[in-house]
Write a structure and sequence with these properties.
This protein is an alpha+beta fold and 165 residues long. It has one helix and six strands, in the order H-E-E-E-E-E-E. It is 13% helix and 25% strand. The longest helix is centred in the N-terminal third of the chain and has 21 residues, at 2-22.
């Protein structure tokens, strides 16, 4: 008997819900009869005329710690081939060839990236420096540096040759 009552109750409830779902929507009171009702705003929407008034307070949704600025990547410089395309910081002085009879024949051997080897003499230019002087154990480079204010400064850099063990 209990089963019959449960089945009867559920049928009546289902028929009643079906009738309510199919009933036509009633027009809103106070609205003109020919005008369609407006769609309700979504639950988390903000009215278009709303403006946040901070009154001296910070916005809680803005991070108070600014992100560090990333420097804009510099335009890659196309370097020429050969010794003129080697940066002084990339150059490793491998050997010095000294001539006692003719000092103008003194040369240095420079190893560059890519397993390339170049020979240079006094006055030869690298990408950012010029070979100024060659001694038995040192080589002096003259580097031209550009300051932030646009001035250029010439600085001498001494690289020592260390014997390999």
């Amino acid at each position: 008997m209990l089963r019959i009552l449960i089945i009867l109750f559920s049928l009546i409830t289902a028929v009643g819900l079906n009738a309510v779902a199919q009933a036509p929507a009633q027009p809103q009171r106070g609205a003109p009869p020919g005008k369609a009702p407006e769609d309700p705003l979504p639950a988390m929407s903000v009215p278009p005329s709303y403006k946040f008034d901070s009154r001296g307070r910070r916005d809680p949704f803005v991070n108070p710690v600014p992100k560090p600025r990333t420097p804009e990547p510099a335009v890659p410089v196309i370097r020429p081939d050969g010794l003129k395309g080697v940066l002084m910081s990339e150059a490793q002085i491998t050997a010095v060839v000294v001539s006692k009879e003719a000092p103008e024949l003194t040369r240095i051997m420079i190893s560059a990236p890519g397993n390339k080897v170049y020979f240079g003499r006094e006055g030869d230019a690298l990408f950012d420096a010029v070979i100024k002087d060659i001694e038995r154990d040192t080589v002096v480079f003259s580097v031209t540096m550009k300051e932030k204010d646009g001035r250029s400064t010439i600085r001498d850099v001494v690289r020592k040759i260390r014997p390999t063990p």
